[in-house]
Specification:
Number of domains: 3
Distance between the termini: 35 Å
Order of helices and strands: HHHHHHHHHHHHH
Number of strands: 0
Strand content: under 5%
Number of helices: 13
Shape: globular
Radius of gyration: 21 Å
Length: 237
């Protein structure tokens, strides 16, 4: 991800984000090539809907400008992130997920420690207040360790294509949290894009036939047994 953030020096952030969020497409292709996961009609539909959502979110946003090196950096980042998701799926089927998470962070520490030392980051960290250190540890746990542990666990139970689309829900959650806690009102196109991404996540797990048949089933139960029966059905799912 460091290469992705470095690309911001060469191309506009919106352009980098738009290119990066195409990773569900690349992830599905790599999973099909390297771990023989089939690309089903349902996968194509959910990924297409998610892409429409991405386009809607960036609608009327300037994506021009920057240099070729920035685009190359983002494309490499997309390939590396997609490769990580595929590798996660491959190893999660064979290893215990928390052991996998431990080794990922252990090797990351080994590679990043020289950067930490030679950039004199230690003195900066040592000069930080107790509150700042606590916040760094908290953010590191909540935004890094916990999500990656959950991702590794999910990789054992979900197809790679489904995981790729579900990770896009982070955008929807960000939009909601920005509105709830910061009072930032999202534009109409952003709301529409978020709805499309949410639909894509649902359709990546349930086909349209399953959704409509379930709807009919709930409707029948609701008619004959009342709304409490329908609620019980939804909670069981």
């Amino acid at each position: 991800m460091g290469l992705f953030y470095l690309s911001f020096n060469y191309i506009p952030i919106n352009r980098a984000l738009f290119i990066f969020f195409t990773y569900p497409i690349i992830t599905s292709i790599l999973a099909h090539i390297f771990i023989n996961e089939p690309i089903t009609k349902q996968d194509i539909i959910s990924i297409s809907i998610s892409f429409i959502g991405i386009v809607a979110i960036f609608w009327k946003t300037s994506l021009s400008g920057g240099t070729l090196i920035g685009d190359v950096m983002v494309i490499i980042s997309v390939l590396m992130w997609s490769g990580y998701i595929v590798l996660n799926r491959y190893t999660a089927l064979r290893e215990v997920y928390y052991k996998q998470t431990f080794w990922i962070f252990a090797f990351s520490l080994i590679f990043l420690l020289p950067v930490f030392i030679f950039t004199d980051s230690f003195s900066t960290f040592a000069a930080a207040s107790a509150k700042t250190i606590f916040l760094l540890i908290f953010v590191g746990f909540v935004s890094t360790l916990l999500p990656y542990t959950i991702l590794n666990y999910a990789s054992k139970h979900m197809k790679t294509s489904v995981i790729g689309v579900f990770i896009l829900l982070s955008m929807v959650l960000t939009i909601f949290l920005s509105f709830a806690f910061l009072g930032e009102e999202p534009k109409t196109n952003v709301i529409i894009g978020g709805i499309f991404i949410t639909i894509a996540a649902i359709t990546s797990v349930y086909s349209f036939d399953q959704l409509f048949s379930f709807r009919k089933y709930v409707k029948v139960r609701l008619k004959h047994e009342g709304w409490r029966a329908a609620v019980r059905i939804l909670l069981r799912r």
